[in-house]
Amino acid sequence: MALVWEQFAWRLAWMIELRGSLVTLRVLERDDCRQLWAAYEPATPQPTEPLHVGLSVEGADTWFAEMQADQEKGRLHLGIFTLDGRLVGDIQLSSIDWHNRTAELGVGIALASDRGHGYGREATRLLLGYAFDHLDLARVGASVLEYNNAAVRGLEHNGFVAEGRDRAAVFIDGQRHDRLRFGLLRQEYGALRDTPA
Ligand SMILES: CC(C)(COP(=O)(O)OP(=O)(O)OC[C@H]1O[C@@H](n2cnc3c(N)ncnc32)[C@H](O)[C@@H]1OP(=O)(O)O)[C@@H](O)C(=O)NCCC(=O)NCCS
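Above: query sequence and coenzyme A SMILES. Below: predicted holo structure tokens.
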């Protein structure tokens, strides 16, 4: 019965609105995807494994269509909006596994000028609350490139534990880099639940 409810809750993603002190998370519409797609400014060095963004409106529409299809298959993808409604990024739980009760976290803030203001950190905390308290997941994992200090700090701030390193697993701009693995268990999140993000 519990499993049925959690899957039902996940299918009500279009109704989700998670509000913090800086940002609100809610579903992305087609125009939101176009806006994010056009706005995304890659950090240097490249902060993530390739995202293939920014090429055309059709690319954004394909992203939107894939997102809709994926929402049915085990992904919860939400926009990050400031409290006055400005779209600043996106965040997702992907590879949701209902049997093992696990998922993977990904987050991005589109404009460089919007990074470093606490949006990613609070968005992560809000989505973790939904993952553990409403979807009843047991574990959320995340992978980051070894040199992405902002992403590592954001995970550590939210209680993630470093679990491993895939050595030389990623090839970017002619060089190989390690991919770091992080994980957060429900009981570890419990200690953070009532603290500010
Ligand atoms: C990584 C990212 C999501 C973080 O979100 P953000 O809103 O910029 O980060 P926040 O302001 O919430 O800060 C999170 C932590 O990172 C630290 N931080 C922020 N920018 C940093 C930087 N350039 N270098 C080092 N640390 C940084 C903050 O001090 C904070 O640490 P604290 O909690 O100890 O104070 C965002 O910078 C981003 O989208 N970058 C490009 C895409 C990307 O890297 N995505 C993640 C892929 S796994």
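The chain has a mean pLDDT of 89.
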